[in-house]
Amino acid sequence: MHTNLYEKPATELCKLLANKEASSVEITRSFLERIQAVEERVRAFVTVTPDLAIEMAQEADRRIAAGNNGPLTGLPIAVKDNMCVKGRRVTCGSRILANFAPPYDATVVRLMREAGMVILGMANMDEFAMGSSTETSYWGPTRNPWNPEMTPGGSSGGPAAAVAAMEAPVALGSDTGGSIRLPAGFCGVTGIKPTYGAVSRYGLVAYASSLDQIGPIGRDARDMALILNLICSHDPMDSTSAPMEHPDFISVLDKPVKGMTIGLPSEFFSKLEDPDVDKVMSETRVVFKSMGISFIELSLPHLDYGIAAYYIIAPSEASSNLARFDGVKYGHRSAQFESMIDMYCRTRAEGFGPEVKRRIMLGTYALSSGYYDAYYLKAAKIRTLITNDFKNAFRTCDAILCPIAPTPPFKIGEKIDDPIQMYLTDVFTIPVNMAGLPGMAIPGGFSRNGLPVGIQLIAPHFQEARLVQLASAFQRETDHHLKSPVL
After folding, report:
1. Annotated catalytic, 282?
2. How many domains, in total, are found in the chain?
3. 3-state secondary structure of 364
């Protein structure tokens, strides 16, 4: 019997499982006990399902014994609370879906089941993924495992905190404007938002359909490679899924990076005012240079319009997507109403939190008659300009390096009453979603207060392998990803 299996990274657990040195039940129990021990301080999960997890682990052990296992059979995983898992409660962090149990599996969940993975539970998130701090969740905020007074970032704060607190070896999150990368950066773990279309969105509860993307959160680049190999595939159930072959991401982990060029966008670096983030970015460049990577300064002239355009496009799509939550077929319905219209109004007023209401109203206004051209159409044009800026930049470099956030993690409650300040947290992550590019968060160091500071790498469309290769090289030279909080 191994002690503290929960401390081991995913790749090591997979080896133990494959070599039959530890059973899936043992590993799953270790994580369930860890959840029980620290969950009160972290609040990473909305729902934990121990009985179902043990059942899945027993099934995985049977598969391993019979020899029909794959590389991930028996590995536990946490799933963000906005992906459909058949028959389990999926709430999107909202009161309106407090008792919703989907009748089908999301494609990524089906792939996990087929691979024999074990779902530990549903991880907490900002309501309908709208937020940067996991404070808008109906179930209360998740806390940063490095300092419970701090936010873990959002909206995938639950999945990132679960991995950082060793409550799960890996997790799945979703990223619409930085929702995987920001929490990964704030929690000192690794996370990747794949190219738009690389991973099926079928069964992901939509926030902004042209921006949402599912991706993994884990401890290091090896974890990313393992999960990307599973989830990057074409899915006929998702019309935006790219019909293409993806490489074996594990094969690039040890490839040398010497001779590569990394671009530094002046628009990003001119916004750096925090000394801790500045220091981490400088130290990162030194590490990459020591590996034989050269740097080039470049310009992405339309970046400054990114946030403004995003907060037209995303709320417009949310206004349309969230119209289905009306109290008719599923979800919350107001107990008292006088007419059909009154039922709609009361249900939505009771079911949605203030941030979701704010974005629905913003989006409905932007799409309304007479304003569509002035707002939505103009934002769509800016999106094209930002995409072209990145295309031009990648003619001169292999990847782009920038921070994930302007500051280290901030306090719970610090920005929740100031939406503009909260929105500006995503200034470095939003352009990546606008252009549909892959972006990766890697632990880059720590602030003077001992809080994690992440760095972000961005690559051209469908070049996730390049990000995995660069991150793996960086993590061979540094040990930030090996550090974990004391709980």
Report:
1. no
2. 2
3. helix
